[in-house]
Design brief:
Layout: E1 2-3, E2 9-10, E3 15-20, E4 36-42, H1 51-61, E5 70-75, H2 81-100, H3 113-131
Antiparallel strand pairs: 1-2, 3-4, 4-5
Length: 139
Amino acid sequence: MIRITDSIAIDESELDEDFVRSSGPGGQNVNKLSTAVQLRFDVRHSPSLPNDVALRLMRLAGSRLTKEGVLVITAQRHRTQERNRQDARDRLVEMIRQAAVVPAKRRPTKPSKAAKAKRLEGKKQRAKIKNMRGRVSFD
């Protein structure tokens, strides 16, 4: 079990990891070892995630989400499989933690009368300055 928050934990059997060849520098092992990790997590059908968290996670995932609702995280920062695997899991946990935070409800507000008056006074001042930039008449 991977603990995300106090109320959310996902089972390791829900994660599917594939090891692929990594791009970038790797020295002599670059064409021999599959060190990059593709971590797949089925967000849409996961029994561990509450529905609202799953919906926020799908919105947060963006292009990393497939049409079937599977989140794909590719990790290839490190040169070893184990470190890339842990990096991918850490990134998944962090994404789920972000999705678990309920966004604050927006309360619409109106400007006060004093704020409206101050704004209009500023506009009048500005209009007066701009009006003075007009042509000068020598009458």
